[in-house]
Amino acid sequence: MEKRGLRVRRNLHANPRDSNIVRDMTSFKSDFLNVLSERGFIHQCTDAEALDTLASAGPITGYIGYDATASSLHAGHLVQIMLLYWLQKTGNKPIVLMGGGTTKVGDPTFKDTQRPLLTDEQIQSNMNGIKSVFNSFLTFGDGATDAIMVNNDDWLSGFGYIEFLRTFGTHFTINRMLTFDSVKLRLEREQPMTFLEFNYMLMQAVDFRELNSTYNCVLQMGGSDQWGNIVNGVELTRRLNQKAAFGLTTPLLTTASGAKMGKTVGGAVWLNADALSPYDYWQYWRNTEDADVGKFMRLFTDLPMDEIRRLEALQGAEINEAKKILADAATRMVHGEAAAATARDTAQKAFEQGTRLVSNVVEMDWQQGQEFTYRTPEALAAKAFNLSIKDAKRSIANNEIKINGEHPATDKLYKRSEVNAEDAAFVLQRGKKTVLVKPV
């Protein structure tokens, strides 16, 4: 891995509680921190010099946790996923921690209200949906630097209440917990915080200690909003295990116009193909603002830095070619080479030929041979656009959806034979999006 002699500036914390120490360093010794620094991933790090020394001496193990609050991760999670990607690429071992236990509580960080409590079945279903995306970024196995995936419910749900309090509660003070932004800001806004949520930071700290004990994991990574929780884990691990432990966070990421990363007018930019088609995913990156092209290439692709510097320097209409390369590379990371190529070809044909653009094709169960089995328009719309029946019905009532070129009446019923003959499917349109629903 090539080392760059860049002069970078970042927070380096000899003590996890100290957030004011800032130094200049010419470069790191380890490939891992050099790559993260050059690509813009580093915001805060506890005792970065010691971590750099450890990482340069041989493989280290690091982890990031993902709560199962939805059935797919979205583009806002990509920075953290790429941290694990580069951790492994530079010869280290990543751990993907599924939050089967912490999801039962819900992370209160910078939330005004408590997250909805999910059932065990919902959490498991969400975890099943989330797991698949990591296969696109990481190599899993039993080797020294192969990734592993673990579930914190395996140890958190095994603690008795008194045991948990006696083992870990004595290492946290209410005084200090109240100073963390995740708590302080909620209270300043006079929004209630339940005792259940207040325990989240203890549970996350216990995760780090457990992974350190079992897998010799020395590094927890996350977004800047997780700094307080990560510091707690570092301190608890050092205190109880008497072993090295470090934390690293990434900057808060927004677009050049100030929009939140991973969100669009249409909703979240999901990573799973069944939640957002590869074509729509490709288009999200193709529509990147000019000022963000270089930054997004650094963070969300594995393109070489020399190539990124060349592309981000393009001006005028040429920057659009750089955006296509960004969209290709970002889509390839998640959906693979074939899906990225298909998405680009589809976009090119639609632009040049003015053809109808089909963003997705979905299948809908239909009793085989039952010509007069009926489907409501809201059922078709819900299937096509991944909506609830309630939202689909509302969109139809507001004339936002067309089926086979017409706005359907709310009481309309569709027979299987009413498919568009050319497509052998129902053609549903919502805004600029067209989806084919094939009865099977």
UniProtKB/TrEMBL annotation:
Q: Which UniProt keywords apply?
A: Aminoacyl-tRNA synthetase, ATP-binding, Cytoplasm, Ligase, Nucleotide-binding, Protein biosynthesis, RNA-binding
Q: Where does L-tyrosine bind?
A: Y63, Y200, Q204
Q: What is its main location?
A: cytoplasm
Q: Where is this motif: 'KMSKS' region?
A: 260-264
Transmembrane stretches in the record are none
What are the protein's GO molecular function terms? ATP binding; protein homodimerization activity; RNA binding; tyrosine-tRNA ligase activity
- Specify whether RNA-binding is a keyword of the entry: yes
Location of this chain's protein in the cell = Cytoplasm
Name the EC number(s).
6.1.1.1
Q: Which GO terms describe its biological process?
A: tyrosyl-tRNA aminoacylation
Supply the enzyme class, top level: ligase
Similarity field: Belongs to the class-I aminoacyl-tRNA synthetase family. TyrS type 1 subfamily.
PANTHER family from the UniProt entry: TYROSINE--TRNA LIGASE, MITOCHONDRIAL, TYROSYL-TRNA SYNTHETASE
Function as written in the Swiss-Prot or TrEMBL entry = Catalyzes the attachment of tyrosine to tRNA(Tyr) in a two-step reaction: tyrosine is first activated by ATP to form Tyr-AMP and then transferred to the acceptor end of tRNA(Tyr).
Q: What is this protein called?
A: Tyrosine--tRNA ligase
Originating organism: Asticcacaulis excentricus (strain ATCC 15261 / DSM 4724 / KCTC 12464 / NCIMB 9791 / VKM B-1370 / CB 48)
What does the record give as the organism's lineage? Bacteria, Pseudomonadati, Pseudomonadota, Alphaproteobacteria, Caulobacterales
Q: What's the encoding gene here?
A: tyrS
